[in-house]
Design a protein that fits this description.
By secondary structure, the chain is an alpha+beta fold. The chain has three domains: 93 residues, no CATH class; 71 residues, no CATH class; 73 residues, Ubiquitin-like (UB roll) (Roll), CATH 3.10.20. The protein is built from nine helices and 13 strands. It is globular. This is ribonuclease H.
Length: 287
């Protein structure tokens, strides 16, 4: 299931839909569409309803409005035959909720993970097996929107450790170990601020030897979004313009909710496309 460009995998399904999660998702989506058609709701910049299978989160700027929508939605669910588990549900507005691996505290949110590498053992020994490096990469991929561009070189070093040939040419060092400990702590502490649709955003695009990245700040210079993507083999030969176009794709989810993003001298989204071949691009690799 894809939400805002991020894929999610079912691990726990509601009773009765264990073998058909798409049925649960379809039923919930139809119920919410009917609810939105029957009720006059605030615009999305003031209130938004998120759903994932049978989990629903209502987020808004006014707690009184949120409380009213919750009551209306509960009554609608009951009229449509849904059963609400009141012990597991939070039916009153709160400032601190967890939804889809993200903890929201007011207008700030950061990532959380139920399982991840324990930092304490890493202080005494280095990861040595491919499985351990893969676990670290998977954990950091979960926090991919909280990894700063300055840490992408370390991700590249981790990726090289799961291949025998590249591991020998770039061995894991004590400095890498210290940087890893710092990164594992940083991604959990990094906070992203909510996007205000009435304000402009500053988008910074860039690339390294192995990644393209995007960082977005609001008018208060607060961090609201980060993303990166590993270059494929043929993409290493792209020129500057082509790599920036790849980085542009990382912020397209923001354009769908925020409108067209502008930068000095160029409209980045959704109008920027490559009309001419980059003279620095030499084509695909040939064997």
């Amino acid at each position: 299931m894809c939400i805002d460009g991020i894929m999610y995998r079912w691990t726990v399904c509601p009773q009765g839909y264990r073998n058909a999660p798409s049925l649960a998702t379809g039923a919930m989506n139809n119920t919410l569409k009917k609810f939105q058609a029957l009720h006059s709701l605030p615009p999305q910049k003031e209130l938004k309803i998120w759903s994932y299978v049978d989990d629903v989160a209502i987020m808004g700027r006014d707690s009184t409005v949120v409380a009213g929508v919750i009551n209306q939605l509960v009554a609608h669910f009951q009229s449509e035959g849904w059963t609400i588990n009141k012990k597991k549900s939070c039916l009153n507005p709160v400032d601190d909720i967890t939804f889809l691996g993200t903890r929201y505290i007011g207008s700030i949110h950061h990532g959380i993970s139920h399982e991840g590498p324990d930092i304490d053992p890493l202080k005494t020994f280095h990861p040595v097996t491919k499985r351990h490096f893969q676990q670290l990469l998977g954990h950091l991929n979960w926090y991919r929107h909280y990894v700063e561009p300055s840490d992408l070189a370390l991700l590249t070093k981790l990726q090289r450790q799961i291949r025998d040939k590249s591991q020998k040419s770039t061995p894991w060092t004590e400095k890498d170990q210290q940087n890893l400990l710092h990164l594992l702590t940083t991604v959990k502490d990094t906070q992203l601020h909510a996007i205000d649709l009435s304000e402009s955003l500053t988008v910074t695009l860039g690339f390294t030897t192995n990644h393209v990245w995007a960082v977005v700040h609001n008018t208060h210079d607060e961090l609201v979004y980060m993303a990166h993507k590993t270059l494929q083999a043929a993409q290493h030969r792209y020129g500057t313009i082509k790599k920036i176009l790849l980085a542009k794709q990382l912020v397209e989810p923001l354009a769908r909710g925020h409108g067209t993003l502008h930068a000095p001298g160029a409209t980045l989204l959704p109008l920027l496309d490559a009309e001419r071949i980059d003279p620095h691009f030499q084509g695909e690799f040939k064997t």
